[in-house]
Amino acid sequence: MKRLLPILMLAAATATAAAPGPAPVLPDAPAGWQAAAARDIAAAYDITMANHAGALDPHNPSFVGNLEAARDHGLALASRVTDADGYLAAVQGFTARIHDGHAGMYVKFDRGALASRQWPGFVAAWRGDLYVHAAEEGAARQGERIVSCDGKPARQLMEENVFAFQGRSDEEGQWWSLAPRLFVDSHNPFLRRPERCVFEWGGERIERELSWRPVTDQASAWHVDDMAPDTLPVGLTEPRPKLFWMAMPTFHPSDAERAAYHAVYRQVETQRDRFLNADAVVIDLRRNGGGNSVWSARFAAALWGADRVRRRAEARTARERVWYRASPGNIAHFRNIVETFTAKKETAIASWAAAHEAGMRVALAAGKPYYVANENAPAPAANPQADRPGEPPAFSRPVYVIVPGYCASSCLDAVDVFKLFPNTKLIGAPSSADSTYMEVRSEDLPGGLARVIVPVKLYVDRPRGNGEFYRPDITVTALQWTTAEFRAVVERDLAPAATLGK
């Protein structure tokens, strides 16, 4: 559990350090937007080189060349920018070429400066192939397979019209999570929106001309609901006797959601006998976009036992080391955390940040590129799988973890912990992935139109490798990812064991 504390602290600290400032002044002419795009992409490159944990990483000698290629690509796009939509597209193109969900740029200005988005009356979904997830009358039929558009197969469409500007196509979960964006016209000047598509239904194919129109409230709802139409609030329910359902839709909980998490921990700890005799426990990560993995770790500790989780986690990460890039910008970031949380009397966070600031200062003064935070980590316990005298009974009932395609960052940290135990099965989609560069800060770029994202640390010998994702034990290809659908999946998987038990 100690390893998770810095994640909690930096999450809180970064939220404070990156508080929004005044609205930027937008360019009022095409030449201004073009100059701003070129200026900000060049500045983002410079700041990234000076502070990113990967820029001096001896384990990744291709990092600098890849970043240079991303800069050159972004600047080539910037040379063709004439408005806010083009600026956004150039920023996205630069970020996509970096190929890391924890690095790049994002715009700060009000999206009101952008042209209104359009759609053709239907929303796509990826379930191993491209399908119509939902549609207005006459636009398409729900469940139709989208074969091609303008002569381009579905995969080529996704590569050119989505992954060239968003996401990472080598992570299978990104296909599931980003497919709804394929048929959204964001007025990217570097893309051509589809005009005619071929749909397949029951073995028969039909070609339709797309009718683009302004995005409606229904369209927005369908885009959001693609993989979670009836998300449950944070909390533990029992949809039938002996089946427990733990909803974790966020690791950025509000005050009420934090209270709900704590109530669950108390319930699991005080009613442990009920869980030891459960048919199954379902952990629902739909809508979870990451945040702070302490919430999932606390649940795992309550369910399996804190010492069991700790021993297995320490054994799994025994060789793992955490390197912090020692740069003036990163040191100033940690100094800001110290000052902010000292004023708030949050002494634990301030002390943690002060220790890291001091370590980076020493490394920088010695001419070392990194401060190694856990260089002298203790050896893991012998035989970590074995129970210890006096421990509570082991929890061995089936656990099903619903994993959406966008699961990354602390959502993946949660899966890492749950998969420490052999009674855990993953159901749903392939996950997304992380690089080994984590714990981000962000910094304003000149003019205030955008911020650059900078990961300050890197993992060395992390068990889950760079770009590695989870594949489900049970893939759920249903178009509607409802709670009822997942309950049916769980019940079907439990049925053989229930029959044997009779």
From TrEMBL:
The keyword Signal belongs to this UniProt entry's keyword annotation: yes
GO molecular function (one): serine-type peptidase activity
Signal peptide start-end: 1-17
Keywords carried by this UniProt record: Signal
Gene Ontology BP annotations: proteolysis
Superkingdom, natural source: Bacteria
InterPro entries listed in its UniProt record: ClpP/crotonase-like_dom_sf, Tail-specific_protease
Classification via Pfam families: Peptidase_S41
Domain Tail specific protease residues, every copy: 264-441
Protein name: Tail specific protease domain-containing protein
Protein source organism: Pseudoduganella umbonata
